[in-house]
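Fold Annotation — chain and its backbone

Encoding — discrete vocabulary of local shapes
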Amino acid sequence: MFVKVNDVKLYYEVTGQGRPFILVHGNGEDHTIFDKLTAQLAPHYTVYALDSRSHGKSDRVPVLRYSEMADDVAAFIQALGLEKPLYYGFSDGGIIGLILAGRYQGLLEKLVVSGANTTPEAVKPWVRRAMKLMNRLRPDPLLELMITQPHITPAQLKHIDVPTLVLAGEKDLISEEHTRAIAAAIPGARLLILPGETHGSYVVHSDKLYAAMQSFIEDPTPRIFE
């Protein structure tokens, strides 16, 4: 299915029944990475798996900005009339989720992010060096996005007013110190570092992610502690 928001046509697939649950993939990927997660969520939720702008079957744009991608998701929710959806975002999708929840307070029911960062410097140095080299050899808007963005402040994270779960792999490309700082800045956020996992080993075509988030998303009375 397609929907046009902010002058960009986004592709998405809908599966299951129940409360709305939005899934947003990482850089250079598309909604299909969530095949196993979608199958596990579908008996309980209506899953909306998106292709972000310039990804999958969605429209291409010359320059990518995380802030605009977050605005796309907000407009998507409004266009489809979704009532308080849950949101899960991986890597770039996690960044989008942090911006979305901070900018559009009260829009979501719950937020789950994994492998997210609030500054390019949070990516481990050897990964940043590799991305910069590849972008010099062959300029790519997707690489440029990761090299130069995001710039999310702790003050912006403190505006997030929905129950939040922050996930990361023990061997993530994002430093564990940074992941812990994200969770600490969001009021009442829960943190889970998954032993032995890399950036995407428990996410991409994996049945591990549902188990990691299940108790949080199924908690009927999540509370936020200041």
Q: What stands out?
A: The first strand starts at residue 2 and ends at 5. The helical segments are 35-41, 66-80, 92-103, 125-137, 141-148, 154-157, 176-185, 208-218. The chain is about 35% helix and 25% strand. The chain has one domain: 2-218.
